[in-house]
């Protein structure tokens, strides 16, 4: 697709890459429809929960060192400051760096929504610049400003003449998309349109889009073997680093959902190769990812040497652990997953590698095609390797998760969201919270993950005690319902 950085707005995932939030069927059917371009989403008769895309967008931008976010909206919209504080303060403290990023809500009231508050926003921008001296300013919209048509672009253009740092309008109205991952694209678009400069030289940097850089020291040491220097985005990234993203040897990511927009845009606009690969989770994922990096950066020989060395250390241990991940009679364990699509169809592959049968996988949304027009690599891999299981796109609907857990009674439930994991435990199902993005990264963490799964299924006292004492709100009638009965026909 053609990227337009002269427009501060970015099209939502539903219209841009055909993303959906409602589907119920099989993995193979979902894959084939994606490949053929015939996939259409369903609507729900009832929706329990979701997440605002503003939180995803502003959390990402808050991680940029010494940035300022001005969220133009009512006080309630400032609830996203919790996620922003985590990125700007907690993560920088863990890293040992100072981040003077600030988040400012404009506290729109009834008068502002009727008569507009352009002048008030203008004064706030100038005050934030004078008081905090940020290195970049992001002026974010809200549902309220979007509804009344507040022209934040004109205000930003007007004050550009009075301040000496980059400033950009960020259109993250929560109602514009039902897919909160659109917020990742919005933050990427803001960075690309305000900070990234034209390419001046090719360096040995590799842009690494991740969430919280928790494995930063490990990743740096690994890339030293290949003479590559990773730049972690956006948590604790400096404005100067972002200005030179176009000079990198390549761009990669820990999650395709997170890094798709940035990677494709840098490749199209500046010629920076984007490593399109399954995620580096599990043995197959890690090796496929490394080899794709080697091909993109002309470092194949060094990477093959590294793979050979690391396989000798970890693969025998993983294979030995794999033998323990089964029932006493030798039958395979069963699992249900509920995660974002960038992990659901990747972790299911890892479970398959460990000999665990996935009986159902729920993706919080699903991207039919990525920016370059290809089906997501995770889905393409599963389709090519003839893997199939029940699948649905559930938009974080926990009541659907509970129905599926009751129906299949799996040995294990895995999720990347604590709320979903807690409900599974209340049901008496052993659960693994895949909180950290690097929990199954590479050989070492795949081995640790296998141990984690083993411990979870062999120590069930907590789940059993909690399930015995907790009364769930679901009746037998609900547990007998079929999930696909909740959805209308595709539109």
Question: Can you offer a commentary on this structure?
Answer:
By secondary structure, this protein is of the alpha/beta class. 46% of the residues lie in helices and 12% in strands. The protein has 21 helices and 13 strands. It has helices at residues 13-16, 27-36, 53-62, 81-95, 110-115, 118-132, 143-148, 152-159, 182-194, 216-224, 239-243, 256-270, 282-297, 300-322, 341-353, 377-384, 398-408, 418-426, 442-458, 461-469, 476-479; strands at residues 23-26, 67-71, 102-105, 136-140, 167-170, 205-209, 229-233, 250-253, 334-339, 357-363, 390-393, 412-415, 431-433. The protein has a six-stranded mixed sheet with strand order 1-11-10-9-12-13, with helices on both faces. Strands 3-2-4-5 form a four-stranded parallel sheet, sandwiched between helices. Helix 3 (53-62) runs parallel beside helix 4 (81-95), helix 6 packs across helix 8 and helix 9 (182-194) packs parallel to helix 12 (256-270). The longest helix has 23 residues, at 300-322. It is globular. The model has no long low-confidence stretch (mean pLDDT 93).
């Amino acid at each position: 697709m053609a990227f337009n950085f002269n427009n501060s707005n970015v099209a939502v995932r539903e219209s841009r890459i055909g993303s959906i939030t409602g589907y119920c069927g099989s993995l193979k059917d979902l894959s084939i429809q994606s490949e053929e371009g015939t996939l259409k989403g369903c609507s729900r008769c009832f929706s329990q929960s979701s997440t605002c895309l503003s939180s995803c967008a502003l959390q990402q931008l808050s991680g940029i060192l010494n940035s300022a976010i001005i969220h133009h909206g009512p006080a309630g919209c400032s609830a996203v400051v919790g996620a922003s504080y985590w990125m700007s303060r907690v993560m920088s403290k863990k890293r040992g760096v100072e981040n003077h990023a600030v988040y400012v809500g404009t506290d729109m009231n009834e008068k502002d929504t009727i008569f507009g508050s352009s002048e008030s926003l203008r004064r706030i921008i100038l005050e934030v610049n004078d008081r905090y001296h940020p290195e970049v300013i992001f002026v974010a919209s809200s549902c309220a400003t979007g509804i009344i048509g507040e022209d934040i672009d004109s205000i930003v253009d007007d004050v550009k003449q009075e301040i000496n740092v980059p400033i950009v309008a960020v259109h993250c109205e929560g109602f514009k998309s039902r897919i909160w991952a659109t917020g990742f694209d919005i933050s990427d678009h803001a960075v690309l349109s305000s900070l990234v400069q034209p390419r001046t030289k090719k360096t040995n940097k590799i842009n690494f889009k991740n969430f919280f850089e928790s494995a930063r020291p490990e990743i740096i040491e690994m890339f030293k073997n290949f003479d590559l220097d990773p730049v972690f985005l956006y948590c604790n990234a400096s404005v100067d680093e972002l200005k030179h993203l176009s000079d990198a040897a390549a761009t990669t990511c820990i999650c395709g959902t997170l890094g798709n927009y940035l990677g494709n845009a840098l490749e199209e606009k500046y010629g920076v190769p984007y490593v399109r690969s399954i995620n580096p989770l599990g043995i197959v994922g890690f090796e496929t990812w490394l080899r794709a990096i080697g091909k993109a950066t002309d470092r194949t020989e060094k990477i093959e040497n590294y793979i050979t060395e690391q396989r000798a250390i970890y693969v025998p241990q993983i294979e030995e652990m794999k033998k323990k991940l089964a029932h006493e009679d030798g039958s395979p364990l069963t699992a249900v997953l509920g995660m974002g699509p960038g992990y659901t169809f990747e972790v299911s592959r890892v479970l398959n590698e460990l000999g665990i049968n996935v009986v159902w996988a729920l993706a919080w949304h699903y991207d039919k095609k990525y920016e370059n027009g290809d089906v997501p690599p995770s889905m393409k891999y599963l389709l090519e390797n003839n893997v199939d299981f029940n699948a649905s796109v559930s938009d974080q609907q926990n009541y659907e998760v509970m129905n599926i857990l009751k129906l299949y009674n799996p040995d294990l439930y895995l999720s990347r969201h604590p709320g979903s994991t807690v409900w599974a435990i209340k049901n008496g199902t052993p659960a693994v919270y895949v909180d950290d993005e690097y929990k199954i990264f590479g050989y070492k963490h795949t081995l640790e993950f296998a141990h984690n799964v083993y411990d979870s299924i062999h120590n069930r006292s907590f789940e059993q005690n909690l399930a015995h004492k907790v009364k769930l709100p679901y009746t037998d009638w609900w547990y007998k319902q079929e999930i696909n009965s909740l959805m209308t026909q595709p539109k």
